[in-house]
Amino acid sequence: MTEDLSPAERYAAARKRAAEQATALADFREMYDFGLDPFQIEACQALETGKGVLVAAPTGSGKTIVGEFAVHLALQQGKKCFYTTPIKALSNQKYADLAKRYGADKVGLLTGDNSVNADAPVVVMTTEVLRNMLYAGSQTLLGLGYVVMDEVHYLSDRFRGAVWEEVIIHLPESVTLVSLSATVSNAEEFGDWLDTVRGDTEVIVSEHRPVPLFQHVLAGRRMYDLFEEGEGRKKAVNPDLTRMARMEASRSYNPRDRRKGKMVREADRERERRQRSRIWTPGRPEVIERLDSEGLLPAITFIFSRAACEAAVQQCLYAGLRLNDEEARARVREIVEERTAAIPDEDLHVLGYFEWLEGLERGIAAHHAGMLPTFKEVVEELFVRGLVKAVFATETLALGINMPARSVILEKLVKWNGEQHADITPGEYTQLTGRAGRRGIDVEGHAVVLWQRGFSPEHLAGLAGTRTYPLRSSFKPSYNMAVNLVEQFGRHRSRELLETSFAQFQADKSVVGISRQVQRNEEGLDGYKASMTCHLGDFEEYARLRRELKDRETDLAKQGAAQRRAAAAAALEKLKPGDVIHVPSGKFAGLALVLDPGIPAGRSNGHRGFEQHDGPRPLVLTAERQVKRLASIDFPVPVEALERMRIPKSFNARSPQSRRDLASALRTKAGHIVPDRHRKNRAAAADDREITRLRAELRAHPCHGCDEREDHARWAERYYRLRRDTQQLEHRIEGRTNTIARTFDRIVALLTEMDYLRGNEVTQNGKRLARLYGELDLLASECLRDGVWEGLSPAELAACVSALVFEARAADDALAPKLPSGKAKAALGEMVRIWGRLDALEEEFKISQTEGVGQREPDLGFAWAAHQWASGKGLDEVLREADMPAGDFVRWCKQVIDVLGQISAAAPAVSGAGGGDTVAKNARKAVDALRRGVVAYSSVG
Questions:
Q1: Which one has a higher pLDDT value, 394 or 363?
Q2: Which of 142, 151, 212, 423 has the greatest count of CB atoms below 10 A from its CB?
Q3: How many CB atoms lie within 10 A of CB 140?
Q4: 679: which DSSP letter?
Q5: Count of alpha carbons within 13 Å of 590, Cβ hemisphere only?
């Protein structure tokens, strides 16, 4: 080939090779025993020329190589490199990788739990740790040259995403930023923003998967390819699957089919259906056996439920499934015993250790957030070593540590999103199936979806063929952010900085399209106005009268409904425990006994922050033995006590026997009483003077007698509807312009009112708030300011602090949480009262939780567990009373420990200290009391 080149060309090629060999990248490439992909080389070259980079590539494609090159450059140039990750598990894993490559003396680790060699030139940390360093002006930042932000697409996360933007905005200009992201559809937009705030940034997008992914559907005994084999970019869905779906849809099974005059049981119908169609959803052991026989293990089966993950392991054990030979079993036992040696025997029994070990020895395990972190780490290690071959996991694994498999199985394409069962999105499907195919091990990866009734091959093909995973900013200013910004930059500069956020960048771009729509609407309004012209008079005026009449009638109807609701709420407020009532409507209509009159009107804590209530919500026992928390919608009319009953002190709402006995007594006592029927009042519109006046004006208007009146009215209705829509669009434009800065202004106004800020000065109170990070930062600061936690023991303080971090996974309306007595109970009550005061202030300053800003109500659901654990109680007793999985318990304890650490730093800053020092000491003692047993030996939180 070189013979064909001219001497000048050969000389140029030789110079180019010599130049490449002299680069840092050439040295770096020699450290790996495999060649780099084109996108990795492109990104590394951009880094070496001094540019920042955004690398968007599929899971498992090796984008972390670019991050490791930043580490290499930093060490070569005598600078520091911080490698940030979203979760502690990833930080621990990356620390181990880098320490192995560069030596433990050159690599450090900083997470909420661990601090190892923090002054090393390369430090792995969680993103929050770096954010806190930036606000504190830490000396560790001196000499920082590179920051790698792994999994930067986390900035879409509703709860934590703002931290990523804070870091990107506040990093010194001299720092080169390396952003590593999953494949997102708007990488160029994100790159444009990085270009704006960080300077020259190269965007490198790779859609190529290093290990090709094949999509399958498992139905009955057969595994079908999702797509037909063929040439061309657009793949056709397998016609066999389409035919099967059509056949199943055409068969109608009569749910009231009769055999010998009796209804066929569901199981019998299912058996008949199997025989007729030979299509069914295979069981979990059946699926694993099938994959094992075809050489498709190891596999991760994603099930969107923790309980179902554990049940899947049990089903495989009961089916006698064994995926390991004797040698592998022995190796598993050896590793497990080594990793769990620090856990006392009594705790192992509580944690279900022996059942878990039995599954591991057979090569089967569950993986979810409810597991003890140590157990999760062991599962991860054994899976990577090939000693666990089938893992049943929740979707959190898809966002977690490096745990690739040969195959990924999805049982269903629907998951619970916290509010309802919803289809998984193309982005979620891509993230889940991205685990399939291990680079350097597998030639191909496999995604298997199980056939379910109502299965649509076209829907699955849409998920598999779409790469739609847009990055959406979740950035919102917080109280802590506001005081930190004002302290560093002053109000004016802080406001300008916030305007540079990705959230505002996206909002400003979206306004362009809305403005065009407003222009089109205004042209349409002119046309509608011409069409409603009447030769008898001003039809616009006539239409206005009609609209005013309609609005007035609607308002009166609403007022009437509000009055009826108020009367019903007033009646509910008079109820007492032991009152027998008749619930007028709803699912639980009928006789009921009041157990608890309910919470007062206003906002109450729920599993999604807060829920709005317009009246008390009584807890009742129905005549059908159900204990339910009713809502105002169940009481459209006032209700009053029909009778009184004594509720036994021994009554337990969770005991079926207790409910049965009391419901029986209720029916005996009041079953014969017939409630009075509520009479309807005369409609307010019949006597309203304004309505009478408007009707008279309408009849007197010249257009009232027009033959085409209703035709004109239809055009007028369209005109007013379009005008209303146009006004809403104009409000949206106004709302999206400077949104972040306006929210910041409202937060600053509230903090000024509360003496946290005075102009550009941060007060002593503000300095305390600057040290408190978290969702309830302002509430924590106010509790310190008011001395709410003074005089509490360490265990009592732990109970109170738990209310700042804990959020129940689901609303439990039936029972109020158990609370420690004495000073802790009083302090918790005071915290809720302070929150009520803050909530009213936020409402006054128009700071809304629905916008992701503001303080949710403290959740007291973990207070008893935190108090008992900090008091030295055993794990068995605490978990039993908390009714909580070990993994959740450990995670909440670690979050309480984290906030206690912040309080110990902030408390001495209480003005007129004395109490502050005591709180700080007790916070440190509480940390020691909580960090024991399972909490201490779980290295990952």
A1: 363
A2: 151
A3: 19
A4: P
A5: 14
Residues 172, 107 contacting (CB under 8 angstroms): no
**Do 112 and 898 form a contact (C-beta atoms < 8 A)?**
yes
Among the listed residues 645, 641, 615, 647, the one whose alpha carbon sits nearest the alpha carbon of residue 630? 615
Residue with tokens 């930059």: 489
DSSP symbol at 405: B
Which of 412, 425, 403 is closest to 299 using CA atoms? Answer: 403
Would you say residue 230 has pLDDT above 60? no
- Asked whether 901 and 875 are in contact (CB, 8 A), the reply is no
Sign of CA dihedral 903, 906, 911, 914: positive
Tell me the two tokens of residue 906.
Answer: 């902030």
Give whole-number Cα distances, 581 to 567, 584, 633, 634, in Å: 16, 9, 16, 12
From the number of C-beta atoms within 10 Å of its C-beta (0-12, 13-18, 19+), residue 173 rates as exposed
Preceding peptide of 285 cis, ω within 30° = no
Query: 139 φ, ψ to 5°?
Result: -65, -20
- Find out whether 639 and 571 touch, Cβ atoms under 8 Å: yes
Using alpha carbons only, give the angle 377, 888, 403 rounded to the nearest 5 degrees.
30
Q: How far apart are the first and last CA of the chain?
A: 58
pLDDT in tens, 672-727: 887 776 666 655 556 677 777 877 777 778 787 787 778 877 887 888 888 888 88
Which pLDDT tens digit goes with each residue over 626-638? 888 888 788 888 8
Tokens of 810: 């689901």
| Residue 709: per-residue pLDDT | 78
How many Cβ atoms from other residues are within 10 Å of residue 249's Cβ?
12
Tokens of 96: 């181990």
Whether this prediction's pTM lies above 0.85 is answered by no
Complete DSSP assignment for 252-292: ---TT-EETTEEPPHHHHHHHHHHHH------HHHHHHHHH
User: What is the pLDDT at residue 576?
Assistant: 87
761-to-451, 489, 757 alpha-carbon distances in Å: 63, 10, 6
Q: Report the alpha-carbon distance of residue 612 to residue 604 in Å, rounded.
A: 7
CA distance 184 to 475: 18
Q: What is the DSSP letter of 694?
A: H
Report which listed range, 34-43, 48-57, 254-263, 693-702, is most confident: 48-57
Q: What is the pLDDT of residue 608?
A: 35
Residue 10 sits at φ, ψ, to 5 deg, of -65, -40
Q: Which two tokens stand for residue 528?
A: 């509608």
Measured between alpha carbons, how far is 98 from 517 in angstroms, rounded to an integer? 53
- What is the per-residue pLDDT for 214? 86
Per-residue pLDDT reduced to its tens digit, 476-494: 888 998 999 898 888 888 8
Which of the residue ranges 272-281, 352-361, 507-516, 815-824 would you say has the lowest mean pLDDT?
272-281
Q: How many residues does the chain have?
A: 941
Strands 414-416 and 407-410, by their bridges, are: unpaired
Q: Please, are residues 773 and 132 in contact by the beta-carbon 8 Å criterion?
A: yes
Cα 225 from Cα 205, distance rounded (Å): 28
- Of the CA atoms within 13 Å of residue 868, those in its CB half-sphere come to 18
730, 521 in Cβ contact below 8 A? no
Cα–Cα–Cα angle for 472, 475, 480, rounded to 5 degrees: 165
Task: Identify which of 910, 879, 909 has the alpha carbon closest to the alpha carbon of residue 893.
Answer: 879
| DSSP state string for 33-63 | SSPPPHHHHHHHHHHHTT-EEEEE--TTS-T
Q: Find the radius of gyration of the CA atoms of the chain.
A: 33
pLDDT confidence of 783, banded at 50, 70, 90?
very high
| The residue type at 890 | V
